[in-house]
Design brief:
Strand order of the largest sheet: 1-2-3-4-6-8-9-10
Structural class: alpha/beta
Number of helices: 14
Shape: globular
Order of helices and strands: HEHEHEHEEHEEHEHEHEHHHHHH
Strand content: 5-15%
CATH class: Alpha Beta
Largest sheet: 8 strands, parallel
Bound molecules: alpha-D-psicofuranose, manganese (II) ion
CATH superfamily: Divalent-metal-dependent TIM barrel enzymes
Length: 383
């Protein structure tokens, strides 16, 4: 139990700046009271999540949603609040120029513009001390014949190589794939295999990030995790839940068992280290933002605790003996354990309140920001 507690205490979960702003669907963005008006306030909210959970010490930025004049100043603001800047997320999907793609666009001028943005993101990493760049491309086509699939792969490879060249010694990029949306016929980076192949060609500073909402229904995500870890190519996660498509709901809400299975593979595959980025990529359309993030962090902690509880010796023995039911029972025993008392105890041992949700509600922070902040900003996504 001591080892399990130590592992849980060392866990690091990164929250996304865009989770704190107003968001919604393409039908409606619901404005909430108290949402941040600028990146400085988003970071202040992220610091609250860390203050009550103790395991969320970094916040990811999305550029240009979090554009500021002085990124070093933003990083020191974060440090002053007890958090750091995590992954820098690029954005080559919201300009009119990108209608037919960004780095895969048929027009070299648009490709050059997209690449310049990606390189600017590395400059922002330098200024903030971030070591991780996250690349997601909305590139793809809507109709067969619209553009040449292989030529687009060549253009993608060229851009990725240029970004890779620009990375410093301690920096890396995480390449994100997504099955579909906004492109509906063909996506240029649709799956882990495509992302993996590009990363393998480039080298160790290119790794794959698994966004749990980016797969076809029924996909065995833990298999992907196990495979990528085995190849040294799992860079991290964008955690969220989905019922249908890229729903961006709170992680562990739709399928806590899947989250447990993923964490089980992470731990077994040696991925439970600081080299794996455990990030949330969620939008809270109808629920309160900070509380939604706290709940999500707790869901990841619970899945992790259960995965750590698996009796791996008993499991290996059952597997060696070909005991199908016995092996499954070992896994299910861990999953069915109520780990909430363990986590409450752990928090108290670290000087935190045992129930972060209740402690945050009691803190009065929400009432304060609701009174202070008028006209909060949109997250940028889901408009
Ligand atoms: C795309 O759906 C995505 O998952 C990428 O990570 C984006 O940067 C993010 O959503 C924005 O919410
Ligand atoms: Mn994502
Ligand atoms: Mn997504």
């Amino acid at each position: 139990m001591r080892m399990i507690k130590e592992s849980l205490r060392a866990q690091r979960i990164e929250t996304p700046s865009w989770a704190y702003g107003n968001s919604g669907t393409r039908f409606k963005v619901f404005a909430q009271r108290g949402v941040p008006r600028d990146p400085y306030e988003k970071i202040a909210d992220a610091a609250q999540v860390h203050a009550f959970t103790g395991v969320a010490p970094t916040v990811a930025l999305h550029i240009p949603w979090d554009k500021v004049d002085d990124y070093a100043d933003l990083a020191s603001h974060a440090a002053g609040l007890g958090v750091g800047i995590g992954a820098i997320n690029s954005n080559v999907f919201q300009d009119d120029d990108y209608k037919l793609g960004s780095v895969t666009h048929p027009d070299p001028k648009v490709r050059a513009k997209a690449l310049a943005h990606l390189l600017e993101c590395v400059d922002i990493m330098d200024a903030t001390g971030s070591d991780t760049l996250k690349l997601w491309f909305s590139d793809g086509t809507n109709y067969p014949g619209q553009d040449d699939i292989r030529a687009r792969q060549d253009r993608l490879a060229e851009a990725l190589a240029a970004v890779y060249q620009r990375l410093g010694d301690d920096q890396r990029f995480l390449l994100e794939y997504k099955l579909f949306e906004p492109a509906f016929y063909m996506t240029d980076l649709p799956d882990w295999g495509t992302a993996y192949a590009h990363c393998v060609k480039l080298g160790p500073k290119a790794q794959v990030v698994v966004d749990t909402g980016h797969h076809a229904p029924g996909t065995n995500i833990e298999f992907i995790v196990a495979f990528l870890l085995r190849e040294g190519k799992l860079g991290g996660f964008d955690f969220n839940s989905r019922f249908y498509a890229d729903d961006d709901l709170m992680v562990g809400a739709a399928d806590p068992f899947q989250l447990f299975r993923i964490m089980y593979e992470v731990i077994g595959g040696g991925g439970f280290t600081e080299r794996t980025a455990f990030m949330l990529d969620q939008c809270h359309n109808i629920e309160p933002k900070i509380a939604g993030q706290i709940r999500s962090v707790m869901n990841v902690q619970e899945a992790t605790a259960k995965a750590l509880l698996v009796d791996r010796e008993a499991l290996a023995a059952a597997q060696r003996a070909g005991d199908v039911l016995g092996a499954n029972a070992v896994l299910m025993d861990a999953y069915n354990t109520d780990v909430r008392p363990l986590l409450a105890e752990l928090r108290e041992e670290s000087g935190l309140a045992p129930d972060p949700m209740a402690a945050y509600a009691k803190s009065g922070y929400f009432e304060k920001i609701a009174a202070d902040r008028v006209g909060g900003a949109q997250a940028g996504w889901g408009a």
